[in-house]
Design brief:
This is DUF1467 family protein. By secondary structure, the protein is an all-alpha fold. It has four helices and no strands.
């Protein structure tokens, strides 16, 4: 695999990981013991720390990307393994 392809796949893993990580560790103003500010959503985070979220996303994305690269190299899970409807067997006939 070329390094540009690997970089593009890592960016995709990073983008996906944002949505995976965002809901964890978020506390609303009510949960933090603060007073609700009129005009904001009740579910809005009390304190948004972009740096901490980016760090967590990077860790998760890197772990997932390393697993992807190892699977690509060693072939643990192949397309034939996830062929639920037997379409690959039909192509070989």
């Amino acid at each position: 695999m070329r390094w540009t392809s690997a970089l593009a796949i890592y960016v995709l893993f990073w983008s996906f990981s944002v949505f995976l990580v965002l809901p964890f560790g978020v506390r609303t103003t009510h949960e933090a013991g603060g007073e609700h500010i009129p005009g904001t959503a009740e579910s809005a985070p009390h304190e948004f720390r972009a740096g901490r979220i980016a760090w967590r996303v990077t860790i998760v994305a890197t772990i997932l990307f390393v697993l992807f690269q190892l699977n690509y190299h060693y072939g643990w899970v192949t397309p034939r393994d996830v062929d639920l409807f037997g379409r690959m067997d039909m192509e070989t006939r």
